Amino acid sequence: MKKIALLLLFVSTAALAQKELPNLNLKSLDNKSVNIKSDFNEKDKVYVYVFWATWCAPCIQELDAINDVYPDWQEELNMEVIAVSIDDARTGKRVKPLVNGRSWEYNVLLDTNQDLKRSLSIANPPYTIVVKNGAIVFEQAGHAPGSEHDFFKKLKSL
Amino acid sequence: MKKKLALGILLLSAITVVAQQENDSIRKTKFKFNGGLESNAQWYLNDVERKIDQPESPLRSNNYLFLKANYGNFTVGTQVESYYKEALLNYNPAFEGTDFSLYWANYRSKILDITAGYFYEQFGSGMLLRAWEDRALGINTALRGGRINFKPTDGVSITALYGRQKSGFHVSDADVFGANADLDLATLFKQDSFGLTAGFSYILKNAEIDESVVDPKFDKETPAYSGRVGFSKGGFYAATEYNYKGEEPIYQPTTGLDYDFIKPGNALLVNLGYSQKGLGIDATLRRMENMSFLSDREPFVYQSNGDQLATNSLDYNDRVLSFTPALTKQHHSNLANIYVYQAQNRVNIDVTTNINKTGEIGGQFDVFYNFKKGSPLGGKYGTKVALNVSNWFNLDADFEFEDENGAYKPDYDAKFLGGGEKYFSDYNIEVSKKFSKNFRGNFMFINQYYNDRLIKGSFIENVVKTNILFAEGIYTFSGSRSLTVGAEHMWADNDRKNWASLLVEYNHNMNWSVFVMDMYNYGFEEEGNLIDDAYDLFKIHFYNAGITYRKNSSRFSLGYGRQRGGLVCAGGVCRFVPPSTGLSFTISTSF
After folding, report:
1. pTM (2 decimals)?
2. Least CB–CB distance from B280: residue in A13, A91, A101
């Protein structure tokens, strides 16, 4: 037991490795298996993973707001938003109609039993992770209404 | 020793987290290490007006440290939990002290995924097996054992597992075996024009039979299985799932485990929908009969302790294999979360209250529509409308209470299609509209019907009908500053009658935000039939205020206020919390 503890201590102090997404597969809205790492690995492209749920009002606000300016962002920067729904079996059936009903243009993935959320130690949605060239380059817990402009400036600077 | 070590690791790692975040250097290593820390603390205070005394340990916290190390295909991980000095009020008593809560080792390649130790899992919609975690609700039903997942080719996924279900820092006694196959037939047969999936699950629970039972009329092994198919073409989709739970003695809260009352259970789920850009229509129907599937034969009992009454694991949604959430809209409005429906999956035959139920039947219907920019109803920025309706009823069933000699011997026969008395309904419409570049609003109308007597099984006839109006405006200033004002009112015809609520939140930038809110209850009769009449028998302000700081992956918040006693719900499951007043402090970070 003591050895394990020491090992953990060593690990937690020594490792300062670059942070990456875990190698996990999630289902897309049309039920295709998508690898969150290898299916989003275009060189120099900025991938924005937004963790959200149908019951999370600030999440929907954030994704609505980005959706309004999404074509402009994509024109100016080689970027893509991946909206990862953490809805479980209670609200999961509402994801597809909601995404279409709000005219969202995003690639939507389903983290039904929250394996990805847990693996990244995300406490609550909304939570945003920006990945470029395989490395997590920015993270933001929560969302402030109206911060889209600042967020895009940040994306361009990465 | 083990506990001290765990506490030490928790503290040291917390320091390391801070240190690590200072260091922005990126080194290319194959070895990856990451994790997260979450801490929820409360300082319970005396509230003279509410006649609430602080508990014996007023300062309490739930702390979680998650650590994971990865090298190529191998990952090892652990979660240390600390409940100091005790867990927050009304958490599962199984959460006590500081210890390793989870540990696991995993190998994952493209076709093989093997885990030893603790793991989470869900088969199908989870109605027979879901092992999951929700810290806010104090749920962690991970299995401890082993699991193999095999994906031989695109479109085929096969899982086999064995484990015992976690409860606090222990596991339950019963063995759980499971197997699951998911097939994407359209992919397998290289069809692009439509989608077709099928899945099968099998679960076997092996729980010892108490020695006192003479000639048991049931097996110690309970099998359960489910099958599901899904089809989609263009914007249309349809899916169905059937679950069957083998015969086992029924546990009822009032009469306990009845070794002579042996029944199987089943559940049918049907989902149909159509969606295209700008429109989504969805209908979900479900019928459940005797679908409570526990990891032991009966709930684990926690003896009364001080002013805490005796409770059992079921009160904390613990030692439960099945996940049968309420299929209703999870509202963002505060007041719409006072009368919350909880799915009725259990059998209850009670001659004293004459409340007899065997499950539920009903459905939920959704329409989402986007009025385009420039259309008459869309205006300059478009208008989004969401309509949601749900209705849930008891099953139509014939009941028996006695055998031919007049002794208590319950039995039932539930009709396949047919609803009994109504448990709950919710009719609501939500409109979101952007009015100008800087101003947007949300409006909601909600009508609810809540049959407390039937849902909770109490003596008192108490149906509550409510109407709720909710309006929220968000104004953004330059530079990420914004002000949110939310006002709502609930008119209720029964119980505590009317409520009003106001929320004001100011976001200074991406990092800082503050809020104040108040919920005010008025208009009720103190002598009336109140659902929970033990506390707050006066017109009361439930005020709360807080400040939050967020930076990158970290979030800190400090709050002060009054917590209403009742159900706190998240992800479809509710937790009862006692009324309290105090300070709260939360930290969460990942690294």
Report:
1. 0.91
2. A101
